[in-house]
Design brief:
The chain has 145 residues and is an alpha+beta fold. It is built from four helices and six strands.
Length: 145
Amino acid sequence: MAGLTKDTPLPTAITLHQKSRVLEIAFADGRSFQLPYEYLRVYSPSAEVRGHGPGQEKLQANKREVGIERVEPVGSYALKPVFSDGHDSGLYSWDYLYELGTNQEAWWADYLAKLDAAGLSRDPLPQSGAPAAGGCGSGSCGCKS
């Protein structure tokens, strides 16, 4: 997380839109961004996602349906979202949120390309105990469990 400077844009409004899963943030310089929860989750500034140095990043998959249960303020410089998948260790400073908004199109395209190259999906994994369509337990393989 970069430090805040006198040039760091400060937010003037922050709104969570639960139905569309978007955090809307407006800044004092007049710019505003609509940041999907999934985008915020996969670009979490936490060590769990970013690692502790270059090359240690962990690609986040299966986050299409992730929600934000609540957002906690951190002093007067950041937010700490609590995501529905239990992730809650990312501190999103004002400058990082601004950077996320400014680079959203390019970073999202990069993320999608990395997912594709890794053969991973944005879609949630099937719930345990619920057989996948046509899979074992559905009856289509002859299994009766």
